[in-house]
Automatic annotation (TrEMBL):
This protein's UniProt keywords: Transferase
Keyword Transferase (UniProt): yes
Organism: Paractinoplanes ovalisporus
Signal peptide: none
GO MF annotations, alphabetized: transferase activity
PANTHER family: MOLYBDENUM COFACTOR GUANYLYLTRANSFERASE (PTHR19136)
Name the record gives this protein: NTP transferase domain-containing protein
A Pfam family per the record: NTP_transf_3
Statement: the UniProt record of this protein carries the keyword rRNA processing: no
Gene3D superfamilies in alphabetical order: Spore Coat Polysaccharide Biosynthesis Protein SpsA, Chain A (3.90.550.10)
Every MobA-like NTP transferase domain range: 2-148
InterPro entries: MobA-like_NTP_Trfase, Nucleotide-diphossugar_trans
């Protein structure tokens, strides 16, 4: 599941997922990292020229934030799907290998999911793989606790989940590198060459 909403205020309101890195939109690059996922779900606007088939949805009302978007996306995930990747659309350096590391960790750890932890110790919460049932339950509990999900933060959601933190020890750029500014986009372009 790829969250492709958001206002991109630090980029002048640009449609961030469609911005190119190394000749492909960031959204296309993220979807390539989960090429074997079924279904692939995008929560947010899907450009008509997206080169891969996806299911799409929006949170209602739009602009509800990442947890409301997560709930909307989960509504399209079949009950038979054991693991769900929850990813931001602005991760142009994400790879299939990085997703495999998270999935294998989630499968083997006695936790409900796995996310990357950066060098400063911060959890990269929109670069993770979760047990689908646990993610659904956490969303449901948070909605009940708050009386709705509009405006809920991912941090609030994570308070309802046990997570394994994974360090990236391979050479090259970190797979969770997100593009929030024009400078970030230039850096991603340099790394992607």
């Amino acid at each position: 599941m790829v969250l492709a909403g958001g206002a991109a205020r630090r980029m002048g309101g640009a449609d961030k997922p469609t911005l190119p890195v190394a000749g492909q939109s960031m959204l296309t690059r993220v979807l390539a990292a989960v090429h074997d996922a079924d279904p692939r779900i995008v929560v947010g606007r899907v450009p008509p020229d997206l080169p891969v088939p996806v299911h799409s949805t929006r949170e209602d009302p739009p602009g509800g934030g990442p947890v409301a978007a997560t709930a909307a996306g989960l509504a399209l995930v079949p009950e038979t799907v054991t693991y769900t990747a929850l990813l931001a659309a602005d991760l142009p350096l994400l790879t299939g290998e990085a997703i495999d590391v998270l999935r294998l960790t989630a499968e083997s750890a006695p936790m409900q999911g796995a996310v990357y932890r950066d060098a400063e110790g911060r959890r990269q919460m929109l670069c993770g793989v979760w047990r689908t049932a646990a993610l659904r339950e956490a969303v449901s509990r948070l909605a009940e606790e708050r009386g709705g999900l509009h405006g809920a933060s991912v941090r609030e959601l994570m308070n309802h989940l046990r997570v394994a933190e994974v360090s990236w020890r391979r050479p090259g750029p970190p797979p969770w590198f997100d593009c929030d500014t024009d400078d970030d986009l230039r850096t991603a372009e340099e790394w992607a060459r």
